[in-house]
Specification:
It is a single chain. The chain is α/β, with parallel strands linked by helices and about 475 residues long. The chain folds into two domains: about 240 residues, 3-Layer(aba) Sandwich (Rossmann fold), CATH 3.40.50.300; about 210 residues, P-loop containing nucleotide triphosphate hydrolases (Rossmann fold). It is about 30% helix and about 25% strand. The strands form four sheets. Strands 6-7-8-3-9-10 form a six-stranded mixed beta sheet, sandwiched between helices. It is globular and about 65 Å long.
Length: about 475
């Protein structure tokens, strides 16, 4: 096979940073390979992808040295229009790559810019929307569809110009189980069609049996390059499982206190119908269901961001809602200041403890927007630890987190639940089995199941995941 991508002694440090983000990066990727970049949060995976697709240094400033070749040519010498025809990118947060507010217009956007005739655009839109399975969201407002649907739209947009390389950064982070398996099917199709697929990822189960090469990034350097078989044989490595449903179940203690939430017969638009449940201090309630079923809508209703059309919601005080996109709720001048804003009466020792629990203490003086995606996620989660609220709602709290930080977040949430009620919206099976003591399954806008999650009932969650 022909060598398509070459990184030769690549180093990069972000502007105004003394820290070198990636160092001595050397690897090759052949045409038609499926390659996974993996490593802990903040290890440099996303930086490598941004060097490859030209965002570094064109849009993201810093000091870049070394050479990156695609098809034998230096990527830095190519015009951005040429790069777009070579590399289609799907970012960690798909909202950052949309240029319109309409799904169909977004899918057409790149083709319009490259002068496709109308009849060819219409043909490609129909073909790609069927291939990716997004016909049902065509011609809708991008910001009213679910995060998983937006992720699928971004994949469709990346594929629209048929680039040689498809580059994904945490593509499964907002997808339900069925959509993640669909992503696996896309990757199989793309490989059969001759595309090269490069994926920066923590969740590995859906990539089992597909990978030609795994590049392990550690502390900004390449620690090793392995075949999938070799990688599976590594001992004591902090990675997510290749076998999702084989992990050991953990029985989470449940010491129920005062009731702090009561939802009575709420309905909202066409999304939710007659939903009723309550939650008490000590409960960690996993809210699961397919993309677009109304999980985030329910969180917004409880948080008073939206008002129900019918029914009643009673909450003890104002809940803390940690959103999917944490960038919208970070305001501080430093990591430490972010927690001070969350509760002006909090003690400095409590702030330090919260940051240590999520592994951010060493970054306490850093600006929040200088953190990696996973680090921002952990910072937002730590806000709930110092909050006075009796109810905390987490929306996909482990999106973009490696196994070590997922376990840190799990322990922090269990600590929080000693004095608060916790609702957790998640597609992350590994995380749910570590942290939840109750599960609510939303289906077709109503509560299909509501059960205590304990030993010998884990099969119910497995069945739900396989259904969604």
């Amino acid at each position: 096979m022909i060598v398509l991508v070459v990184f030769s002694n690549v180093n990069f440090s972000y502007s105004n940073s003394k820290h070198t983000s990636i160092r001595n990066i050397n690897f090759e990727i052949k045409e038609g390979e499926v390659v996974c970049l993996t490593g802990l949060s903040g290890s440099g995976k996303s930086t490598i992808t941004k060097c490859l697709n030209g965002l570094i240094p064109r849009l993201i400033e810093g000091k870049l040295s070394g050479n990156i070749f695609v098809g034998g040519e230096k990527i830095r010498e190519k015009d951005i229009n040429e790069i777009n025809l070579l590399i289609g990118s799907v970012f960690q947060d798909p909202r950052g790559q949309f240029f319109t507010t309409n799904t169909k217009a977004e899918l057409a956007f790149a083709m319009e810019n490259y002068g496709y005739p109308v009849h060819k655009m219409e043909y490609e839109i129909n073909r790609i929307s069927k291939l990716i399975g997004i016909e049902n969201i065509m011609d809708q407002d991008i910001f009213t569809i679910s995060s998983g649907e937006r992720q699928k739209l971004s994949i469709a947009c990346a594929f629209a110009l048929r680039p040689k390389i498809l580059l994904f950064d945490e593509p499964s982070s907002n997808l339900d189980y069925r959509s993640t398996l669909m992503l696996r099917d896309f990757i199989i199709k793309f490989k059969k069609m001759g595309f090269t697929v490069i994926i920066a990822e923590h969740r590995l189960f859906y990539l089992s049996g597909l990978l030609d090469k795994i590049i392990y990034v550690k502390d900004g350097e390449i620690d090793g390059i392995y075949s999938e078989v070799e990688f599976r044989q590594l001992k004591n490595c902090p990675f997510r499982s290749f076998s999702l449903f084989d992990r050991q179940f953990e029985n989470i203690e449940k010491n129920v206190g005062n009731k702090v939430l009561k939802v009575s017969g709420i309905s909202f638009k066409h999304i939710l119908k007659e939903v009723s449940f309550s939650a008490s201090v000590g409960e960690i309630v996993g809210i699961v269901g397919a993309n677009g079923v109304g999980k985030t809508t329910l969180a917004k209703l409880i948080s008073k961001i939206e008002r129900p059309d019918k029914g009643k919601i009673e909450v003890d005080g104002q809940p803390v809602y940690i959103m999917q996109d944490v960038d919208y709720q970070l305001f501080g001048s430093s990591v430490m200041n972010e927690l001070e804003i969350a509760n002006f009466q909090v003690k400095e020792t409590d702030i330090e403890l919260a940051l240590k629990k999520v592994g951010l203490y060493e970054y306490r003086k850093k600006h929040p927007f200088k953190l990696s995606g996973g680090q921002k996620q952990r910072l937002a989660i730590s806000l709930s630890y110092v909050s006075k609220s009796k109810l905390v709602i987490f929306d996909e709290p482990t999106s973009g987190l490696d196994i070590l930080n997922m376990e840190r977040v799990s322990e922090l949430i269990k600590d929080i639940a000693k004095e608060k009620a916790v609702l957790v919206i998640s597609h992350d099976y590994e995380f749910l089995t570590k942290v939840c003591n109750r599960v609510i399954y939303l289906k077709d806008g109503t509560i299909e199941k509501d059960f205590e999650f304990k030993k010998n009932r884990e099969f119910e969650l497995v069945d739900i995941f396989k259904e969604i």
